[in-house]
Amino acid sequence: MYSKLISTGSYLPEKILTNKDLESMVETNDEWIRTRSGIEQRHIAAENEETSDLAVNAARRALANAGLTANDIDLIIVATTTPDVVFPSTACIVQDKLGAKNAAAFDIQAVCSGFVYALSIVDKMIASGSHSTALVIGAEIYSRILNWKDRSTCVLFGDGAGAVVVTRGETPGILASKIHSDGSRRNILHVPGHVRNGAVHGDPFVHMDGPAVFKFAVGAMADVCNETQAMAGVTSADIDWLVPHQANVRIIDATAKRLGVPAEKSIATVNKHGNTSAASIPLALDVAFNDGRLKRGDLVQMVGVGGGFTWGSVLARWG
Q: What is the model's pLDDT at position 153?
């Protein structure tokens, strides 16, 4: 048995925060942000929106695009760093809000690599025969774990959710996947605070060593793409679309260059979304599907790297 990706869906909160807006909030300017990250704007969740709400909206659109209902789903995985609550999982809350009564549900916490980790797991579960139709969702509300006085981080991140439907297929859809981690690098991108006895202890905001992240990310993403290509017996020349984690346009461009993938085959949405962590790859997939770039039969290389450190890639034939 094989697994295949058949549809996408996404949701972005209504509020848009532009670089110009940030100039009145923190010592920064539009040119500084654009030249260092490529970001022009990001979406910010409303006070009454939870991560599960973003995820549900994206999931409903993915289901509609697949011609399915919530009752057809037997597995839900939500990749998120910003869950609604400590527990239950955001996936269980999504399952209830969708009315997906036949679905098992759990979360994956691999930060910006979460969606790739989740896809890798779903592929194995469908191929084993234990499940047949899954929702894989990346959803984040990073605006709530940012220090809005720290210009090195607050200008980079945004909120949003993306989802894909993965089903059983007679021919290979997901051709190869590979995931890695290195906990010794955990302090170059992390939130050091923790909850104990009902209170947050330590700093509850994102901290990042930007140069260290950049140096590691480019090499790790290129290397794991090469690994999955070797597993599938293809090369970068065979790739129709590179869909990297949308952290920074310089990381995206450097990764594509190292792989030898032409810039026009690399999908970038970071300019409009910012870094949405686990949501960034499915959001980019949805944009490419809706604008007609992503077509049935295309060979798609998805790759992410995030705090942990975690990184991984999934190589798939679309549809």
A: 98
Domain ranges of the chain: 2-171, 175-317
The catalytic position among 57, 65, 248, 275 is 275
Quick one: pLDDT band at residue 234, thresholds 50, 70, 90? Answer: very high
* Overall average pLDDT of the 147-158 stretch: 97
Of 43, 131, 245, 273, which residue is the catalytic one? 245
**Where does 2-171 sit in CATH, by number?**
3.40.47.10
Nearest to 230 by CA among 267, 175, 173: 175
Contact status, residue 19 vs residue 40, Cβ threshold 8 Å:
yes
Known catalytic residue at 271: no
- 275 as an active site residue: the answer is yes
Express each pLDDT in 159-206 by its tens digit: 999 999 999 999 999 999 999 999 999 999 999 998 888 888 999 999
The CATH code for residues 175-317 is: 3.40.47.10
Is 245 labeled as catalytic in the residue annotation? yes
Cβ count near 297 (within 10 Å):
8
Catalytic residue among 112, 154, 225, 273: 112
